[in-house]
Amino acid sequence: GQDEPNPPQLPDSMVLLHPPQNDQAADHLNEILQEYSDPKLTLAEFQEQNPSSNIQFPEFTHTSAKHFSNQRTALLFAPGEYPNIDFEVGYYTSVIGLGESPDDVQFTNCSKGPHVPALDKFTDRPPNGSGLNTFWRSVENFATNPAEGMHWVVSQAAPL
Fold first, then answer.
1. Taking residues 117-127, what's their average pLDDT?
2. In which order are the strands placed within the sheet that holds 105-108?
3. Which of these, 20, 45, 46, lies nearest to 110 by C-alpha position?
4. C-alpha gyration radius of the chain
5. Cβ contact 82:103 at 8 Å
6. What 3-state class would DSSP assign to 26?
7. What is the DSSP-derived secondary structure letter of residue 137?
8. Nearest-CA neighbor of 81 among 37, 16, 140, 21?
9. 3-class SS at 68?
10. pLDDT tens-digit readout, 17-39
11. Alpha helices, H only, 21-135
């Protein structure tokens, strides 16, 4: 057989990320990571994006365009320090530190780091969010000590 490429070629569903070398690179990494977050999605937007769907859900269930997606993503973080990196871990996303131990991949000087907030994206939903519809996401093998504390508001199938 032929030799495998080293490093291997990753499919589009796997993203290998490296520690930013300066503030500009950290800002750019934060922009990239927003693609894997759960953006606010209203019922009208959901229906517009899924015109063939005749399912009628209450307004508050449509919190993400990725909620009913078949897209799966693994965000792979190479060992090192990731300062000022804050991003929401979205539906069907795994965040994986590639170090030998969790301390090999560190999110530092951040407000939230990798997180899953309560679904408080709608202000008319008392008591300002819940975790009943935040599932199918995971994180493993990294260290973080965010200023706002670790937010991991999930309901099921969301290992930490």
1. 53
2. 80-83, 105-108, 143-144
3. 20
4. 17
5. no
6. helix
7. E
8. 21
9. coil
10. 999 999 999 999 999 999 888 76
11. 23-34, 43-49
